[in-house]
Each structure stands twice: as structure tokens, then as C-alpha cells.
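Look over this record as teaching material.
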Amino acid sequence: MRNTLLLLTIISFIFVAASCNSQVQEEKKQEQLANANKVEIYYFHYTRRCATCNAVENETQEALKKFYPTQVESGDIVFISINLEEETNDALAKKLMVSGQTLLVVKGDRKADLTVDGFKYARSSPEKFHASIKTAIDPML
């Protein structure tokens, strides 16, 4: 009798653990599908930033407001500013293979790196930079 009770307890535990694991995996799949439908713009930076670094962030946000106000409002396009000096951001930086200041447009497994254009044009020719952003995002919509 004791062995039967122990066996039933172990089987119950395995069943509960398997169902919880299945639920967590399903939630992860749902999250991945939701993110695959979004265009995410990541701006990785450090705590101390120069005028150009600030301009890259500001002009990116301006371009999004200018070209995609509806998509930003609905959450289909998301801008995320990420401080590389905060440990909580290490996993995302590694996942996206970022090691320094970077501006990325990401949708699912597609990426467009706008770092060079950002630092080249954000302060001196914002309209050129806005055009680069539009060129990167449009195919992902």
C-alpha cells in the first residue's frame, strides 16, 4: 500500500511538472509569435552620451512619429532604448550580437543595422537619416 501511494505521488508530480513545462513553452511560443509580428527598433547606448548619441535616439523617434504614427500607437512598431551598462540588458545584447552603441531594426529573424547612418546623418542631415529608417522599416511591415 505504501509503495502504491508513493508511486501515485511520483506520477502525479511528473504529470504536474510536465503540464507546467508545456504551458511555459506555449507562452514562450506565443511571445515569439507576437514579437515576430512587431517591428522593434533597439537603440543600444551607454550611460554617458554625446550630442550625436542623443541625436540618433531623438531623430529615430521623430522619424517613427513622422512616418508610422498609427503603427507606433498600435504597438506594431516599438522603439526601445537600452543602456548597455545595465546588467539586465546583457542577455538581449548577446542575443542580438551587440557589443557597443548600435541602432537595429528587428522583425522576427530579420535585422537591419542603421548604426552607421545614424551616426553619420542624425545631426548633420536628419532627413537622410529619416529616409534610411523608412527604407529599413518599410520591407518589414
Observations:
- The longest helix spans residues 2-36.
- The chain has two domains: 1-36, 38-140.
- Residues 26-34 have pLDDT under 50 and may be disordered.
